Amino acid sequence: MPDAVGPHPQYDVFADEFLDHARNNLHNAHYDRPTCLALLGDVAGLTVLDAACGPGLYAAELADRGATIIGFDQSPRMVELCRERVPAGRFRVHDLADPITWLPDQSVDRVLLALALEYIDDRTSALRELRRVLRPGGALVLSRMHPTGDWLRHGGNYFDARIIEEVWSRGWHVRYWLAPLEDTCTELHEAGFLIERLLEPRPDAGAADIDRDGYRRLTQQPTGFLAIKAIPDPRGSR
């Protein structure tokens, strides 16, 4: 069993397929994106850092809502897609595992980290960097796979953080961390965040027209994602 996800940009080889998949599917368009955008709140006039920005679907919506967008992803192709979708944004290739040396302290109002926490080996260090660039009064919104759903699918010791390798339905090979909710809360605490809200979202009504069985499952079972809004702890990191 591998002991690290590593720096390889896994999504690069299927970036265009992922864009087509995520643009209007149940899990991304009608479940995760609406939840994260709601937690971010009114972003008009704010600077938002889209960390692990993917193909720019969140960034485009945030830009439409009046935000100034800065984004990065470890996949060069994802960054190209972002630049095409949000030409007014500033996007670059960057790995979450590395310090964000190109952003000064307290330079952004919001940080979005959507469905990317699982791919980071040193999550506390990455979260510390995101806290560093947040202005006082700012907020981090992150989403991750629901740990209960992960455990139901994979079994084993729920509290044992470990790496999973699997092939998703379109033949996409992925490697990511399986970790209990307690670990995510501890990592946020050690990085200097306070959890303001934790949501176990339900898909919006439009999802039922796309996938009725999936819609029913996600409205009744903890098998999808969860989302957290965290704010900088004024006392600093622990």
From TrEMBL:
Domain Methyltransferase type: residue ranges: 49-142
Gene Ontology biological-process annotations: methylation
Classification via SUPFAM superfamilies: S-adenosyl-L-methionine-dependent methyltransferases (SSF53335)
Transmembrane segments: none
UniProt keyword terms in alphabetical order: Methyltransferase, Transferase
Pfam family membership, one: Methyltransf_11
Presence of the UniProt keyword Transferase in the record: yes
GO molecular function: methyltransferase activity
Name listed for the protein in its UniProt record: Class I SAM-dependent methyltransferase
